[in-house]
Design a protein that fits this description.
The protein is mainly beta. It contains five helices and 26 strands.
């Protein structure tokens, strides 16, 4: 029956219809912001609440939402008082002295408690006299094309709020010494597979060795191969190798083991650590020069009949890597020149190289890895979410 189509529309616009039955209310978001290192208050932050204040059939239009902001006081507390009709809202924080760029809750993640007495028109039993009468009312409105009249029948009888204030707290990492660096959050980098691959046999097992590739972290590009020069290849390419990817595969009885490693030149390497858990500042301020830098980091992927059964990534979802590359050493084997960088996981190698973001410090021997988000040296990718 045609009326069912409108029922789907009503379900989609439930939040909108709830609003029409309510008067404006004043709500509060009270946010307490602290420094993640010292525990002290953040006194220069702006807390912004976004809620829907206009409504219509296209209820997701940006103009239907209103932003209301408040500043933190000397105790790091911001009390945002705002008008609302809908109990749902989201909020975010801006902190010039701290990292909070990725701190934003999704729409409808916050909601004031309320009790809604829904309309009698939501669940109609046409086997009763009242139910049949309501059904005929709806059908008459539908047939006449009165959309607003039809939808108004689904407004709740009453809405009673059980709260009008929500209290939240958050802490952020402070800015230490952000500097211009090369930051890349690129599309995935496709690796040569069949092209240039060689096959060898060991103990009656065929091993495929794919063409090794070198990667320039500053340019965010693979280095050109000798074959590329011979063929007159003119695509963009890097200049200096920061690491090499070696890749192999073995297939026996429909079981494929694809494996390899991230390889570093003498004196170069990387170490891996867990992320901070903070999306706005997931990695580190600087390289730990006393750490042990690994010269080789393995990866692998097992599949059975084309279905992946096991993956060991270069970096897990909750890991990052700090690298020391472009090393120069004196005759005694002491490092005299190098560059530091970091990569945020997950980082995988299969038919392409994938990672979330990569930051390269071009200053020789400078362990600082705190990237100035507003001054990315990468011309091709000026925006970067991660310092």
């Amino acid at each position: 029956m045609k009326i069912v189509g409108y029922a789907g529309l009503v379900s989609m616009l439930t939040g909108c219809m709830l609003v029409h039955a309510r008067m404006a209310h004043t709500g509060h978001l009270v946010a307490v912001l602290t420094d993640r290192e010292t525990g002290g208050p953040i006194t220069n932050a702006t807390v912004t609440v976004r809620c829907q204040t206009k409504f219509g059939l296209s209820y997701t239009l940006p103009s239907f939402f209103t932003n209301t902001s408040a500043y933190t006081d000397s105790n790091g507390v911001a009390d945002v008082a705002f008008q609302f009709y809908n109990p749902d809202f989201d909020w975010w924080v801006e902190t010039p002295s701290h990292y909070s760029k990725r701190f934003r809750l999704g729409s409808r993640d916050e909601q004031f408690g309320c009790v809604v007495e829904e309309s009698d028109y939501y669940r109609i039993d046409t086997n009763t006299v009242d139910g049949l009468s309501r059904y005929n009312e709806l059908k008459s409105l539908y047939d006449s094309g009165d959309v607003i009249g039809y939808l108004s029948k689904f407004e709740p009888k009453s809405v009673t709020y059980t709260e009008n204030a929500i209290y939240r707290s958050a802490s952020f990492y402070p800015k230490h010494n952000p500097q211009p660096m090369y930051a890349h959050a690129p599309p995935n980098k496709y690796l040569p597979m069949k092209n240039g691959a060689t096959v060898s046999v060991s103990n009656d097992v065929e091993i495929t060795h794919y063409k090794p590739v070198d990667f320039d972290m500053k340019e965010d590009l693979f280095l050109p191969m000798i074959d590329d020069y011979i063929r007159g290849w003119h695509a963009p390419a890097g200049y200096i190798s920061d690491f090499r990817l070696e890749r192999f595969s073995v297939t026996t009885n429909e079981v494929t083991n694809y494996y390899g490693w991230m390889d570093f030149a003498p004196g170069c390497g990387a170490y891996i650590r867990k992320t901070t858990g903070d999306k706005s500042f997931p990695m580190t301020y600087e390289a730990d020069t006393n750490e042990t830098f690994l010269s080789r980091i393995p990866f692998e992927c097992h599949s059975v009949s084309g279905k992946v059964t096991h993956v060991k990534k270069l970096l897990a979802d909750d890991e990052y890597m700090v690298l020391r590359t472009r090393v120069m050493m004196n005759s005694a084997g002491v490092v005299t020149n190098c560059n530091y960088s970091k990569i945020l996981g997950p980082m995988t190698v299969q038919d392409e190289l994938e990672f979330k973001t990569m930051i390269f410090n071009p200053q020789p021997n400078d362990p600082n890895l705190e990237c100035d988000l507003e001054n990315n040296l990468s011309e091709d990718n000026p925006c970067n979410w991660y310092p």
